[in-house]
Amino acid sequence: MSDEKFENDLIDEADFEEVEEAIEELGENEECMKALAAAREEAAQYRDSALRSQAELANARKRFEKQQSQAYASANVELVRKLLPILDDFDRAFDNVPGTIAQDSWFTGLELVQRKLGGILENLQVEEIAAKGQPFDPHVHEALGQEPSDEVEDGAVSRVMLKGYRLGDKIIRPALVYVAA
Q1: Taking the domains of the chain in order of start, what are their residue ranges?
Q2: What pTM did the predictor assign?
Q3: In contact, 176 and 161? CB cutoff 8 Å
Q4: 83-125 pLDDT per residue, tens
Q5: Strand order across the beta sheet in which 165-167 lies
């Protein structure tokens, strides 16, 4: 056998057979057979250890990638939570703008800022939770109270006080609503 075969850390099955054949050619010496059995056992242990180490490394990589992905998602959720009050302020301000100001160029600039903020949230795949007229869902809506309504049927959201948002399956903020009674 050449020295090249022993350069690898693990000996494959073909190498074991070659070693066996070489020992058998030397004769069935009891001492050689014991040495062969010990070498086989040691090689099997090393191979087992190497396979386990490879599996542990693959699992550690998967765990790291999953943790990294979760950390990225958590960071996005926290960023969005901090941006939502600004978006709410824009919405409230634009809902109450006098008609005389709405035509000013500086007001158009503010509208552009609001659209950019909305675009950022859209790029992060943040979605507004549908509320008004929808059946009340405690998973995505938070009821502030009940009120009579001719516009929607009982048990549906009659008024939205604060918009709710989600990122994928994660609710960033539930919609604060009144429910028709």
Answers
A1: 127-181
A2: 0.63
A3: yes
A4: 999 999 998 888 888 888 878 888 888 889 999 999 999 999 9
A5: 126-128, 165-167, 170-173
